[in-house]
Amino acid sequence: MHEYKLIILSPGGVGKSALNVQFVQGIFVEKYDPMIEDSYRKQVEVDAQQCMLAILDTAGTEQFIARRDLYMRNGQGFALVYSITAQSTFNDLKDLREQILPVKDTDDVPVIIVGLEDERVVGKEQGQNLARQWNNCAFLDSSTKSKINVNGIFYNLVVGPWEAGTT
């Protein structure tokens, strides 16, 4: 069985951990400790093949920053998550990507941009345009509460390559 190491990155407070819990356990978590770095495993079927997803839910606290290069080096796919209710979290995605590229030593890194939450402030077009700028990486809007596109995020990281603007 093939194992995929997926790294989920975001600015604080956008709902990244709730996304992971919804995908792995099928439940919506309202409150989560942002100081926790956690990992999850889930067996899934992709293209009629069983595979194991090893998902790292990163924390931005100082104690975990030293390990950042190691987990980025080992990551095989990256979900960059922002809140569609906060433009600043969308703007932070560029910094997150700039942390990945030097460690991976290539621009050809499997990345999906994920707009999360329900009350839109950041336009869908902004996410789609950014995905096109970044070598046509994938883009999805998602809601952990409504269970919209939760599975699609993780499957897109495994299946790739993707079409720009995938919804």
TrEMBL record:
<dbReference type="GO" id="GO:0005525">
    <property type="term" value="F:GTP binding"/>
</dbReference>
<dbReference type="InterPro" id="IPR001806">
    <property type="entry name" value="Small_GTPase"/>
</dbReference>
<protein>
    <recommendedName>
        <fullName>Ras-related protein Rap-1b</fullName>
    </recommendedName>
</protein>
<dbReference type="GO" id="GO:0003924">
    <property type="term" value="F:GTPase activity"/>
</dbReference>
<dbReference type="GO" id="GO:0007165">
    <property type="term" value="P:signal transduction"/>
</dbReference>
<dbReference type="Pfam" id="PF00071">
    <property type="entry name" value="Ras"/>
</dbReference>
<dbReference type="GO" id="GO:0016020">
    <property type="term" value="C:membrane"/>
</dbReference>
<dbReference type="GO" id="GO:0012505">
    <property type="term" value="C:endomembrane system"/>
</dbReference>
<keyword id="KW-0547">Nucleotide-binding</keyword>
<dbReference type="InterPro" id="IPR027417">
    <property type="entry name" value="P-loop_NTPase"/>
</dbReference>
<keyword id="KW-0342">GTP-binding</keyword>
<dbReference type="InterPro" id="IPR020849">
    <property type="entry name" value="Small_GTPase_Ras-type"/>
</dbReference>
<dbReference type="InterPro" id="IPR005225">
    <property type="entry name" value="Small_GTP-bd"/>
</dbReference>
